[in-house]
């Protein structure tokens, strides 16, 4: 049951606070921070990483560069959090654009296995697996 979402926009990020969510019978408050291009500013980025308790690392299956960038994010997050078991989910987005796919399923799954994290393919357009990814990260 979701009672409400508060959205706070700042120059560098959007913060979504779901007031109360029931997960396996327990009420929890979820606080989601969406980074938006501030990845270039190391100090800001590391601050966000430090405050994170779980990470959804999203790339586009139609853009090889975005997949390559996930490796760097993983390393930066592990450097800041210093915990290989931090809840982490690799997400290949734009699954509705199969004809434009540049990153194979095997390649993405290979990386997620190497990291020991789950891999999910989503489409923000059709909402395929969006709820699954959202719930999965809460349970890791
Ligand atoms: N077809 C399709 N287009 C998508 C999907 N997700 C995002 N897009 C499009 O891809 C573009 C980039 O999406 P954004 O949400 O701005 O990506 P972002 O990673 O948040 O970018 P920054 O906030 O700048 O870091 C936009 O034109 C979106 O409409 C998807 O699942 N399918
Ligand atoms: Mg964005």
TrEMBL record:
GO terms for molecular function: GTP binding; GTPase activity. The keyword GTP-binding applies. SMART domains: RAB (SM00175), RAS (SM00173), RHO (SM00174). GO terms for biological process: signal transduction. It is found in: Endomembrane system. Keywords: GTP-binding, Lipoprotein, Methylation, Nucleotide-binding. Its main location: membrane. GO terms for cellular component: endomembrane system; membrane. Signal peptide: none annotated. It is a lipid-anchor. NCBIfam families: small_GTP (TIGR00231). PANTHER family: RAS, DI-RAS, AND RHEB FAMILY MEMBERS OF SMALL GTPASE SUPERFAMILY. This is Ras-related protein Ral-a.
């Amino acid at each position: 049951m979701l009672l409400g979402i508060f959205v706070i926009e700042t120059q560098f990020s959007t913060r979504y606070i779901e007031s109360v969510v029931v997960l396996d019978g327990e009420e929890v408050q979820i606080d989601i921070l969406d980074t938006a291009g501030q990845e270039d500013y190391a100090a800001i980025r590391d601050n966000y990483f430090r405050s994170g308790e779980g990470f959804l690392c999203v790339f586009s299956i139609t853009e090889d560069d975005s997949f390559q960038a996930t490796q760097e994010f993983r390393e930066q997050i592990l450097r800041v959090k210093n915990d290989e078991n931090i809840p982490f989910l690799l997400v290949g987005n734009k699954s509705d654009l199969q004809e434009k796919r540049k990153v194979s399923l095997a390649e993405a799954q290979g990386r997620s296995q190497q990291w020991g994290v789950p891999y999910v393919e989503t489409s923000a357009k059709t909402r395929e697996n969006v709820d699954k990814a959202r719930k999965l990260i809460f349970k890791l």
